[in-house]
Amino acid sequence: MGLLNGLLGNASEVNIDKLNLEFSPIMADNESIQIGYKVIRDLFIFTNKRIILVDKQGITGKKTEFLSIPYKSITTFCVESNGHFDMESELKIWISGQSTPICKDLKRGTDIVGIQKTIATFML
């Protein structure tokens, strides 16, 4: 079922040890990965200091964007859904000094509650 969920875009939790090996070069002192979610090729990594959004681009996925969002700069966030049978939701994060939010699509089956709880835990 894991492969099917990945193909459909459902987020699955990623092993923290694997994330630590891959992302240790970009981690700050005293920063640790708390949880990570993978949606197809993209990653949502939650550390104790920031959110790292990893967006693999193009057909081969060789080009990668790393967006770092410190929790202290998040002013508001929300998850928007069109209804109970909606196939996907959208995560919106407003950053201080920016009028438009950062938007990420969350496919059906994503642990939306876990993502919101993680953001709230570190933001508040």
Helix/strand-derived category reads alpha+beta
CATH architecture: Roll
Number of strands: 8
Radius of gyration: 14 Å
- What is the fold named in CATH at topology level? PH-domain like
Helical content band? 10-25%
SSE series:
HEHEEEEEEEH
Strand order of the largest sheet: 1-2-3-4-5
Which of globular, elongated, flat, extended, rod-shaped describes the shape? globular
CATH superfamily: Bacterial Pleckstrin homology domain
Strand content: 35-45%
Number of helices: 3
Q: What's the CATH first level?
A: Mainly Beta
Number of domains: 1
> N-to-C terminal Cα separation, in Å?
35 Å
Unreliable sequence segments: 1-9
Overall residue-averaged pLDDT value = 83
Largest sheet, described in full?
5 strands, antiparallel
Describe this structure in words.
The protein is an alpha+beta fold and 124 residues long. The protein has a single domain (2-123), classed as Roll (PH-domain like). The chain contains 3 helices and 8 strands, in the order αβαβββββββα. The chain has helices at 2-8, 16-23, 112-123; strands spanning 12-13, 33-39, 42-47, 50-57, 63-70, 74-81, 88-95, 102-107. The chain has a 5-stranded antiparallel β-sheet, sandwiched between helices.
List the helices and strands and how they pair.
Layout: H1 2-8, E1 12-13, H2 16-23, E2 33-39, E3 42-47, E4 50-57, E5 63-70, E6 74-81, E7 88-95, E8 102-107, H3 112-123
Antiparallel strand pairs: 1-2, 2-3, 3-4, 4-5, 6-7, 7-8
